[in-house]
Write a structure and sequence with these properties.
Elements lengths: L12 E7 H5 L5 E6 L3 H10 L6 E8 L14 H14 L4 H11 L2 H10 L10 H12 L12 H10 L1
Antiparallel strand pairs: 1-2, 1-3
Helix pairs in contact: 4-5, 6-7
Length: about 160
Amino acid sequence: MTNNKFYNETASLSVYIANLAEYNNSNLIGGWVSLPIEENDWKDFLKTIGNPEEIAIHDYEDNSGIEGVEIGEYMSLKELNELGERMEIIDTCDVDALNALYEALGYFGDALDCLESEDYTFYGNMTMEEVAREYIEECYEIPEGLENYIDYKAVARDMRYD
C-alpha cells in the first residue's frame, strides 16, 4: 500500500483509482483513496494521478468485515462517497446482522437498506417451522379445533421462498 494523505489503512473502504488513459497506454498511474473523501481532497488526489478525464477502479480494500460489498469499475465519486458514508455508519452497527441480511436477500444494497430501516426480525435459534408457528399465532386468530390442521412445515417451506 502506498503512504499518502488520501489513504487511511484503517478506513472501512478504500479504492485504488487508476488514470484510465495512462492505463490504456500501459502506464499504471493511480493511487489509493479512503472513502468517503471531500470534494477538495478528491480534486487534489486527481492532480497526483495526472488530472485524468477518465478513471477506473482497479482494486478495493474492505476492512469492515461485511460480505457482499459491490464496487464497480466505473463508479462515480458520488456513488463511492455514498457507499463510504454508509459503511462508516455500519461500523457502529451489527456487522453480523448485515451479513445475515445479505445472506437472506442476496444483494448488498438491499441488505444495507434493510439494516438502516431496521425493518427486519431475527429469530435466533428457531427452526423455520417454529418461526411459522409463531408468525401464524401472532397474526391470525385460529378457531379452537382447527389449530391441529395447520401444516406448519408447509408454511415454513413457503416462508423460505419469501
